[in-house]
Here is the input.
Amino acid sequence: MNWGIEMLYVHNLMKKYGNNETLNILDGVNLEVKEAVWCSIVGPSGTGKSTLLKCIAGLLKPDDGSVRMLNHDIYSMTEEARSNFRRTNIGFIFQDFKLLSHYSVLENVIMPLLYDKDRKWLMEKAKDLLKLVGIPESLHNRLPDSLSGGEKQRVAIARSIIGDPEIILCDEPTGNLDTKNRDRIIELLLNIQKRGTTIICVTHDLEVAEKGDCVYRLNEGLLTKEEMIHL
Ligand SMILES: Nc1ncnc2c1ncn2[C@@H]1O[C@H](COP(=O)(O)OP(=O)(O)OP(=O)(O)O)[C@@H](O)[C@H]1O
Here is the structure.
């Protein structure tokens, strides 16, 4: 594996909501992340961490600056190309899981690729991934609402890797979990990283953040590298 390949390059990102008098939420954010690196982003509530993730994901166009992922300039693409790029290269994990409540666990896992791949093949792959994240077969046909928080997040992790993404964007992935489940999710993310996947993880939890190879703090619109985390 080549550890030096550039995965993400964010240059001078600017974003504000509303009219010109409001502050820039992102005020010249720069970030460079290599392949197979876990990069944590911390910062006070409301400073724009989710906004930054959305800009990185191609879901929220910045006012200025650029996002390059795998040597593709995300905002130079057409919307359709960007959406295809996102589907094939990016996995997502959210604090509130975002599982579809009317679909079974298995159906949730295959959902990102439902229109791209053969359903039978996807089902087999989903079963393998659910095994990988420790979800027993007895839960495969259950609806998400009947699962515990830790189980839901493990299903969400299986869903995030169904397309073998190059990069996973996590927004507070352990925010709704107790310590035991948090540690299990950290372990899974570390294993996914070991397979060569890049992880960008927004978190309030410094114990999660410090699992990263690098930690950045977003404050007053700027991202700065943390030299050391004091727990
Ligand atoms: N669509 C929007 N329209 C207007 N303001 C918004 C919008 N989305 C977010 N904001 C504001 O932008 C700021 C940054 O929000 P964001 O969700 O990115 O912060 P955050 O750092 O992720 O917060 P938290 O840690 O609490 O989740 C907040 O003040 C928020 O109210």
In short: Strands lie at 6-15, 26-34, 38-42, 64-69, 72-73, 90-94, 167-171, 198-202, 214-219, 222-226. The chain has a mean pLDDT of 93.
